[in-house]
Structures are given as C-alpha cells and as structure tokens.
Amino acid sequence: MANEYKPIVNSDLIGDYVTIELPGFKGKAPEPCRIHYLSMGSGEPLLLVHSVGQSVYTWRELMPQLAKGYCAVAIELPGSGHSDRPLSLNYSMDEMADIIVKCLDALGVRKTHALGVTMGAMYLMHAAVKYSDRFMKVVALTPGGITEHMPKKLRRLEKPLGPFYREMYGKKDFERYLPLFYYDGTVCTPQVIEQMYKTCDDHASRQAIMYAIRNFDEDYVLEGLEKSGREFFIIWGEEDRMQPMERLFELRKRMPGCVYHSIRNTGHWIHEEKAAQIAEAVDRYIRYEGEPQ
User: Fold this and answer.
1) Helix/strand/coil for 32
2) What is the pLDDT of residue 47?
3) Using CA atoms, how far apart are residues 92 and 165, in angstroms rounded to an integer?
4) What is the pTM of this model?
5) By the 8 A CB rule, do 182 and 269 touch?
6) In sequence order, what are the beta bridge partners of 236?
7) In terms of CATH architecture, what is 2-149+218-287?
8) Cβ neighbour number for residue 288 with a 10 Å cutoff
C-alpha cells in the first residue's frame, strides 16, 4: 500500500495550502498565515502534528502506513516547513493550540483523531484539552520539550544569548547531532540530513525555532492535562537518549489515567524508525478500547 503513494520529500509542491488568521500585534489588524499541508488516504480523519523545526518530511515512513485506514492530514505549523513565518506570533502554548484548531477549521474538519510528536505532541494535547469537542483519540509520541540530554547549542536557544546561537546553528551541527536522535544512526543518511535542514536554513526559520523553544511551557500544559483527566495514548522509545525513559515514568505519575506503550530498539524519532509498529499500535488504540496488545 505504501508504494502506491509518491515519496514524501521536503517540497512546497507536494501538498496544498490553507490560510488561517492570527490575531496580529496588539491594536493591529489580524495577520493572515498560509499553512502548508499534505493529505493521504481515506476514512476517518487523523491529524498529524510535527515538532518544532520539522516538516511533513518527518512523516515519510509513518504517513503511508496510517493512510491504509485513515485520511491522514499532516499540517506544517507556522514557522516550520513551507508554512509562513508570522511576525506577530510568540509561539506560546495557547497560540499553538489555537492554531491547530484554526487549521482544522480551514480544512473543514469538525472532529478528528490526532497524533503528535515531542513538542508538537504537547501542543496537540493542550489543544485537545482546550478544545475537547474537536478531538477523538489522541496519540502522543514522546511528548515534551528541550531536555538536559539534548545538544548544548539547542539548549542555549532558551537563554538570553539565544539570538547569537540561533545564527550559529548550521548544517554541520545537524550532521553532528541529528544521528543522536535515532537508535540506529545509519537511518540518518546524508539525504535525511539534507531534507531536515532544508527548511531551517534561513534567518526567519531559525528565529521561529528560537521563539518556540523559549516560549515552550511543559508544566503549564501538564497542569491542564492533570485537571482535565483526559486520556491520551503515549508511546515512547526505550532507547531514547534525548528524552530517556525516566521521563515516561514521571508522566505516568502525573497522568495515571492515560494509556502507555514503549517500543524497544528505537530512539527519539520513533515514528521514523518504527513506522509499522507505531501505525499498528495507533490503529489498535483508535479502533479498540484499552492498551494495544
């Protein structure tokens, strides 16, 4: 089935666009923002939300698998991929949750299943609590933000000298650090690095990444999740070096009512390394009650 779809590459030509409206600066007119998205398959809708600085390319392995049973729709968040880099956006947790729902409105999707990865998973879970009537089953792959285990240059974007490090983060850093996000480093080929870096290689993109990292507030989202009691399906890679399994154990304490699942021999980008296993687990969770067997 996957072979029936064209390969997903990092290009502004492979998908379509919708325009959403952002509030704009205080006292100013709303700012239009073009959102790039890709859809594949048919059936119940399944929204895909990438992490900061990524694009639809990150779904190149998983999306064709999910499209066997769902209408998978991958949006590129503002500041990422081939979507606009809005001047009035602070990339706060509330703004990003609102944007996800604005994208659903623009796409004409009233209610959807959804899946997000890392920082995108946190945005998605926040949206699912804030707009609970818009989401059915929600899956979060390794939800969370920047940790002490991640590359130092990435962590420094949170600091006052972030603008300085923003311009220093180049392709050589991608070549050095990106393989660490996989359990099997050979998956991270030169082509993968080239495609990943393609939409980060300009000032506006780096600035968007910096603001998204600086304004990421995991505790704010988790407090809302704890109060809501909403169930999520959380999947973790057992060999994740960027967000080790200890983080999963912490989440289990804070959200005991959720469903948890881990996958062996995979790192941080579990959706790229173990696409078939994740697609199967997601399908079982959506179609049946309880944890996938």
Assistant:
1) strand
2) 98
3) 21
4) 0.92
5) yes
6) 262
7) 3-Layer(aba) Sandwich (3.40)
8) 10
Closest CA to 278 of 182, 148, 141: 141
Q: Which secondary structure element, helix H or strand E, spans residue 129, and what is its range?
A: helix 118-130
Consecutive 10-residue averages of pLDDT for the chain (293 residues): 68 94 81 96 97 95 97 97 94 97 98 98 98 98 86 68 53 87 92 92 89 93 94 96 92 92 95 97 86 45
Q: Record the tokens describing residue 51, joined without a space.
A: 């992490």
Domains in the chain: boundaries = 2-149+218-287
Give CB contacts under 8 A, 24+ apart, made by 25-33: 25/87, 25/88, 28/88, 31/86, 31/87, 31/88, 33/78, 33/83, 33/84, 33/86, 33/89, 33/99
For residue 212, the one-letter residue type is A
* 3-class state of residue 3 by DSSP: helix
The span from the CA of 235 to the CA of 143, in Å, is: 9
Alpha-carbon distance values, 53 to 49, 162, 223, 231 (Å):
12, 16, 25, 27
CB 19 within 8 A of CB 106: yes
The tokens for 201 are: 């290689």
Bridge partner list, 280: none
Could you give the CA distance from residue 138 to residue 161 in angstroms, rounded to a whole number? 36
